[in-house]
Amino acid sequence: MLRIVVFGSGRGSNFESIVDAIESGDLPVKIVLVIVNNPEAPMIDKARENYIPVAVIPHHQISREEHEEAILRELERIDYDLICLAGYMRILSPNFLRSVKSKIINIHPSLLPSFPGLHAQKQAVDYGVKYSGCTVHVVNEDIDGGKILGQDVVEVKSDDTEETLAARILEKEHQLYPRILFDIAFGNIHLD
Ligand code: GRF
Q1: Could you tell which of 6, 9, 13, 17 is best to mutate to test the pocket of ligand 1, judged by most ligand atoms within 8 Å of the CB?
Q2: Is the dihedral of CA 47, 145, 118, 157 positive or negative?
Q3: Ligand 1 pocket: which residues have CB below 6 Å?
Q4: Which residues neighbour 117 within 8 Å (Cβ) at sequence distance 6 or greater?
Q5: Residue 82: beta bridge partners?
Q6: How far is CA 134 from CA 89, 107, 130, in A?
Q7: Would you state the pLDDT for residue 73?
Q8: Which of 14, 31, 103, 129 has the largest count of CB atoms under 10 Å?
Q9: HSE-CB of 114 using CA atoms within 13 angstroms
Q10: What does the pLDDT look like over 146-165, one tens digit per residue?
Q11: Could you say which of 59, 67, 108, 137 is catalytic?
Q12: Which of 170, 172, 177 is the best mutation target for the ligand 1 pocket, counting ligand atoms within 8 Å of the beta carbon and taking the most?
């Protein structure tokens, strides 16, 4: 069974889609820990409702180094195979990437390498692309860089706003992340 740690900062809808897929029996994955940097994040209650251990590690008033050291201390106490970022709004340092014992993957709301960084859906609407979507990729030192593991496409309509496009992309995200985890669990895709 693939043992994952999920990092998040907010709403937690991607996290929920993974929990739902596990509960339906379709995904042979165990979420061993949720790490949240925002004490207000709705994701905390979602984890607790599902009896998943949560570590709330706020980043306020400490340096990035201290924050990451606190996360590493939590990770050292558990056994895990993969870290999954799901709306985690902090950039992880190269030192952190080297210090964890597993790969890290992330979901991003655009067809990378187009529109990395913040407000990817607004970037797509502003640019006027006809198609956007979502990407699950391996995290490396480049923002939203790293090997692409899977993507799904969403048509951009002429009257789309950032919000309407984001909502349709999010529906695809909720299918894509569990699907990629399924393929990782069964060895159908490789992270190297
Ligand atoms: C998603 O759009 C994800 O692609 C991006 O942040 C958002 C997180 O949403 N990285 P949620 O917390 O999973 O609902």
Answers
A1: 13
A2: negative
A3: 8, 10-15, 86-87, 107-109, 170, 173
A4: 123, 143, 144
A5: 4, 103
A6: 17, 7, 14
A7: 98
A8: 14
A9: 19
A10: 999 999 999 999 999 999 99
A11: 108
A12: 170
CA 161, 162, 163, 166 torsion-angle sign: positive
pLDDT in tens, 73-104: 999 999 999 999 999 999 999 999 999 999 99
Domains, the chain, in order of start with CATH, read 2-185 (3.40.50.170)
pTM of the predicted model, to two decimals? 0.97
Active site residue 108: yes
CA–CA dist 182, 18 (Å, integer): 10
